[in-house]
Design a protein that fits this description.
The chain is an alpha+beta fold. The chain has one domain (36-278). Helix content is 30%, strand content 17%. It has six helices and eleven strands. Strand 2 (21-25) and strand 3 (30-32) form a beta hairpin. The radius of gyration is 19 Å and the shape is globular. The N and C termini lie far apart (59 Å).
């Protein structure tokens, strides 16, 4: 079905796959159906429970519950394993499909459970997460990485101004800051772990010396939320306003909700870190 008169999209292929991809944009960005109203409400209810926890109305951190059953976009499954909790906190194992290499399977990525519903909401308007391949990059000695040393880093969005690494979405660094992996010395497979406590923010070396470098232009959470807003508008062009009304009555409202949910996740993460240190 040709849709050349519509921005960003040249073909829509309706399938019965769940999670359902409905096409690809001109830049190759997979387009998925928006998150269902029921799943969106499950994420909202989770954050309502988080607010109650932070306000002291309950002493127990809420479990993901229904959120862990959601499969949406390139997020295929979510699993919590309390038995594998370590000094960096609990682990949510998230299986993400590699749309660029459909024949290859990626190992689950590890997240703080609190950020999982926020990431689902970020992709709710039809966006998706993808893997950036570092195969062509060199190691610290300038040598090309071996085939078995490939690193696939999860990012959100694909169009110009998008493609934001999830590490930067979660850590939310200020302009000029790099995300360093404090877990690197403990785990050779550190690149699978996206928990906030495994990250440290430092001023980019080039930004420190020049005050004008790539460090100051690196994209972060704000760029990801802007990308989600663009996906919201794209969904309206493709399928009509009704398909995203439950996400917010306007792009602005949707983006404000995302900003608030990530802020709640940040606040809750800090509260849990303090709680663990007090024990």
């Amino acid at each position: 079905m040709s849709l050349t008169n519509k921005p960003f999209v040249f073909e829509i292929e309706y399938t019965t796959d769940i999670p359902r991809r409905i096409g690809r944009g001109q830049d190759g960005d997979p387009i998925y159906a928006p998150l269902s109203a029921a799943d969106w409400k499950a994420c909202l209810r989770y954050f309502e429970a988080v607010e109650s926890f932070l306000a002291g109305r309950t002493t127990r951190m809420p479990a993901l519950g229904a959120v862990a059953k959601i499969a949406h976009g390139t997020i295929l499954s979510i699993k919590i394993d309390r038995a594998k909790e370590d000094l960096f906190g609990p682990k949510a194992f998230v299986v993400i499909k590699d749309d660029d290499r459909p024949r290859e399977r990626r190992r689950p990525r590890i997240f703080d459970p609190i950020y999982v519903p926020a990431l689902l909401m970020l992709a709710a308007a039809g966006g998706s997460f993808r893997f950036n391949d570092s195969k062509s990059k060199r190691d610290a000695r300038g040598q090309l990485l071996r085939e078995d040393d490939r690193r696939f880093y999860v990012s959100f969005g694909r169009r110009a101004g998008q493609n934001v690494r999830v590490l930067r979405i979660i850590s939310d660094p200020r302009p000029g800051q790099q995300v360093h992996r404090s877990i690197r010395q403990f785990d050779a497979n550190y690149h699978y772990d996206h928990r906030k406590s495994t990250m440290a923010l430092r001023l980019d070396d080039s930004a420190r010396s020049t005050q004008h470098s790539a460090g100051f232009s690196r994209k972060g959470r704000a760029a990801a939320i802007k990308a989600a807003g663009e996906h919201y508008e794209r969904a309206i062009k493709l399928r009509g306003r009704d398909c995203v009304q439950h996400l917010g009555k306007s792009r602005g409202e949707y983006e404000r909700q995302l900003t608030r949910m990530f802020a709640l996740a940040d606040e809750c993460h800090m509260a849990l870190v303090k709680l663990r240190r007090s024990k």
